[in-house]
Please model this.
Amino acid sequence: MKIVSAETMVVEIPFQLRGTGVGIMPTAWKSLEFALVRLEDERGNVGWGEGFGYFTVDATKAIMDQLILPTLIGTTIEDIPAWNLQTQRRIHMFGRYGVTMFAIGGVDLALWDLKGKREGVSVSKLLGNGQRTSIPFYCSPVRYADPKLAAMTCEEAMKAGFSDIKLHEIALKEIAACREVLGDTRAMCVDVNCAWTKDFIDANRAELEELNLSWLEEPIFPPEDFEALAERRSSSFPIAAGENWCTTQQFRSALSAGAVDIVQPSVTKVGGISEFAAVLDVASQFDASVMPHSPYFGPGFFASLQLAAAFDSVKALEWNFVQPDAWLADVEGIRRGDVVNVPQGPGLGFEPDMDVLKRYRRA
Model:
C-alpha cells in the first residue's frame, strides 16, 4: 500500500471528576488527550492511529511529524512489522522507549487499520482467526485518595455493570474501604503506579494478602527492577506489570527474571500492534497471563479490542472509568455492562465523530 498523505492532530476532551485529579499524574488529570495520525493510501482508504497519550501527546505528535512521517509519505508498505522494526532501528538514537515508541506505535496502528480497509477485513482477521466477538473488561477508576470517594466510585462501577475493579489507591485505608463495599468474592486488584517501596510491601505483606487482591500492579519504582519484583511474587500474591515497558526486549527480560505473573502491554506505548503481537508470543513462551493496559478511547481502544479478538491469551481489557464531555468514537454504544462487542467491519473499527474531533482539536 502506498502512503500518499499523512496528518497528525491533538484532540483534548475534558472529563468530569470528583476530587483534585492529582495523584496518578504529576498535575491534575481532567481530560482525555489523543495524539492521532491519519494516513491515506493511493486508493483513498484512510487509516487511523493513536500514540500515547495523556500529558505527552504534543511530544508524541512532534516525533511523528519530524522523524517518521517525512520518510513514510510516498513509500509503499507491504510488511508492517518489518517497517516497524526498520523504523525502530532508524530512530533509536532518540531513545528506545517512551515517546519515540509511542510515535512509532501510533503510525503502526494506522498502517494496520489501512491494511484492513484495503483488504476488506477486520484487523483481528488479519492477525488470526478473530473468532471472539466480545471481550470482558474490568473497571479502572482514577485515584481519589479519599475512602468515601473511592468506595462511592466502586458502587457506581457496579451499577454500571462492571464485576471486576482495579483501584489506583495507594493508602491501605482506601483499599480496605473499597474491599468492604465490593465484598469478599468480587475480583479486586490494585495498581499503585510504582508508589510503594520494597520495605513498605514487606512490612505490610500480611494486610495486603488479607485484602485478597487478584494482582498487585507496578508496586515499586523503577518498574523495570525485575529482581525486586521476582522476590515479592508468590502464589498468593500475584504481581502484574508492563504498561511502562516497551518492545519485546523488556518483556522477555522481565519474564526471564521471573518478575511477574501477569504482563500488561499497552498497544499505544509498547510499539503498536506489530510489537504487541510479538510480546504475546514472548508471553506464551513463559506461560504468562496477559491483561493489557488500555485506558484510552481512541484508535488504541479499538486496536486493543481487535488484538483481544485475535488472541485468546488476552484475558480481559481495562475500561477507564471516567465520563468525558464527548466521545471521540462510539465506545459506550458497543459496551454491555462489563463486555464490549468487537467491531466486525474492515480495519480497527474506529470511526471518529468528526464534529467532536473538530470541536476539541487543539493542534
The two ends are 28 Å apart (CA to CA). The chain has 13 helices and 14 strands.
